[in-house]
Amino acid sequence: MPIIVNLDVMMARRKMSLNELSGKVDLTLSNLSILKTGKAKAIRFTTLEAICNALDCQPGDILEYRENDNKKAIS
Asked: How far apart are CA 74 and CA 62, in angstroms?
């Protein structure tokens, strides 16, 4: 998937654990872990807003678009 989740990077920069972030954004550890590992298929804007508020960052710090390698090969 060309959307990369950099939640682990932002958590490391802010020195925040998954447990601490889970408490701040009122999201279960399992759902936050799915998001952190890039296995999530979607994210609600309200969740993204809560994460950005807790980590004092922008949505672009959490989500990144990388062009698919297959697409590069075709062009």
From this structure: 28
